[in-house]
Specification:
alpha+beta; globular; 36% strand
Length: 156
């Protein structure tokens, strides 16, 4: 399990997430969390957080958790559903947390909650506003081979 003061290199963990400033705060088999100060780079033409950015965050952090939980197995997101509840605008500070709902041998399902911090200078999980929620299904297989995934798909 990670230490709260530990600093993660988001660039090495997930280049797309780091490209718009997302930073990982916690990484374990039971929880992955991170934060983002929303900039215009993350917004759609109406100056609010782009829904695709929320989806990228959800799949990115849940994939990290599944990879960590399986000891570094190769992973592939196979299904993502996301609901956008409220908007966040440029200058807002958001926090994303992913936790596993199910960790099977080859399939994981993770729950992701993206919230807006009311006061970034005084973080308080009790006062955060839910802006998006997501479920991500991830297929986990051994390194260097897609054989496991192909066998699994043929059974569907």
């Amino acid at each position: 399990m990670s230490e709260p003061s530990m600093k993660f290199d988001t660039q090495q963990l997930d280049t797309p997430l780091s490209s718009f400033g997302f930073e990982i705060d916690e990484l374990s088999a039971e929880k992955v969390s991170g934060h983002l100060l929303i900039t215009p780079k993350c917004c759609q033409p109406f100056h609010v957080l782009h829904g695709g950015v929320s989806a990228l965050i959800a799949e990115g952090i849940s994939s990290m958790g599944a990879s960590f939980a399986t000891g570094g197995k190769r992973i592939a997101g196979v299904q993502l559903s996301i609901n956008h509840h409220k908007s966040a605008k440029s200058g807002d500070y958001i926090v994303a947390e992913a936790t596993p709902l199910s960790k099977g041998k080859s399939v994981h399902v993770w729950d992701v909650r993206i919230t807006k911090e009311v006061d970034p200078n005084n973080p308080n999980p009790e006062t955060r506003t839910l802006i998006a929620s997501s479920k991500v299904t991830i297929f986990c297989f051994d390194h260097g081979s897609f054989t496991g995934m192909l066998k699994h798909q043929s059974k569907l």
